[in-house]
Specification:
This protein is mainly beta and 327 residues long. It is 11% helix and 40% strand. Strands 1, 2, 4, 9 and 11 form a five-stranded antiparallel beta sheet that branches. It has a five-stranded antiparallel beta sheet with strand order 8-5-10-3-12. A five-stranded antiparallel beta sheet has the order 17-16-19-14-21.
């Protein structure tokens, strides 16, 4: 099999997403691969820093490397990066073992005119290292690096206590909430997707999905209510009777935001995956508390930031610390 030019790269900063079981997996470097004729390809992933080290490095399972081959994500702009693995049996075409720190090899049968996404990664997130990706096949392959972005995905569920519905319902404040923090004004792609197999049938309108983005802190001296949370709303997506709701949103930076996924009607239970993708680094955390409690915690964080700013102006700066929202 003739070799193809090996692309190289690095897992650094927010691009070190770890294996597909981690929320940050979609941040890893990704490559779109296609072929004109059916072929068997050998994909090899190497870590030159380990292979060329003069001394044997201690074994760390998080630093083991592997290859995941998935179907390409279909977006409004065409074929794109794979931001998350929502249904591993359907979306993961092939995956190597994560057993070695210096090499992983995957033998895969590629079909013609079918786009695949090749994702090299370490087993654990946050491992910074260089890599080389080598391909061998009997037929020509087209390999295209995809734009580098940060992508964070979380799985969640609307349960008996958290299926609050849209903001037309008083129970809206019981919906799951996610804390999103951006360092500056950023355009984000937000995707909310149903997990198939557990949704009520013949309730397409009631089970429509969508999301809200709200500022996490109300004006000084005000408490959170259903009305005040609506007033703090920055964005409302369309509610769609489909498996995926995906939109691009321009969001402000330097303030805590809450992303609230929900169904149109209250009481509709089911699992979902929510992901945020942006070209710059950001923080996106799942909160175990409901929307009302999460907003109250975010208010505490906002007050701490204000206090820290006051102290810094008087020369008595004390660093503000984010409360344990997910404890």
């Amino acid at each position: 099999m003739p070799p193809h030019l090996p692309p190289g790269g690095q897992w650094i900063a927010h691009l070190a997403g770890g294996r597909s079981c981690h929320p940050t997996w979609g941040s890893n470097p990704q490559y779109l691969i296609t072929c004109q004729r059916e072929t068997t390809a050998v994909i090899a992933l190497l870590r030159p820093d380990v292979r060329n080290s003069l001394m044997a490095l201690p074994y760390n399972p998080d630093e083991c490397i592997g290859i995941t081959v998935c179907t390409a994500e279909v977006t409004a702009d065409g074929l794109g990066r794979r931001c998350a693995v929502r249904q591993p049996a359907a979306e993961v075409y092939a995956e190597s073992e994560f057993a070695s720190m210096d090499e992983a090899v995957l033998l895969v049968r590629l079909q013609p005119e079918v786009p695949y996404v090749v994702v090299p990664s370490t087993a654990g997130p946050g491992v910074q290292a260089p890599y080389e990706l080598r391909l061998f096949s009997s037929q020509p392959l087209e390999l295209v690096p995809m734009p580098e972005v940060q992508c964070v995905s979380h799985t969640g569920a609307w349960t008996a206590g958290s299926a609050g519905g849209c903001n037309l319902h008083q129970s809206w404040i019981t919906n799951p909430a996610y804390l999103l923090q951006l360092p500056a004004k950023t355009t984000c792609r937000i995707c909310l997707a149903r997990s198939t197999g557990n949704w009520p049938r013949n309730q397409s309108l009631r089970a429509m999905i969508g999301f809200y983005i709200i500022r996490a802190a109300p004006p000084r001296g005000q408490q959170h209510t259903v009305t005040s949370l609506k007033q703090l709303q920055l964005y409302e997506s369309a509610f769609v009777p489909m498996a995926t709701c995906e939109e691009e949103v321009d969001l402000p930076g330097n303030m805590p935001l809450l992303l609230v996924p929900c169904t149109y009607a209250s009481g509709v239970r089911g699992k979902f995956v929510v992901s945020v993708t942006a070209s710059s680094s950001f923080s996106f955390e799942a909160l175990t508390a409901g929307l009302a409690d999460a907003a109250a915690k975010a208010l505490e964080f906002d007050q701490q930031q204000a206090a820290a700013n006051t102290f810094s102006q008087t020369g008595n700066f004390a660093a503000a610390r984010l409360p344990a929202l997910h404890e």
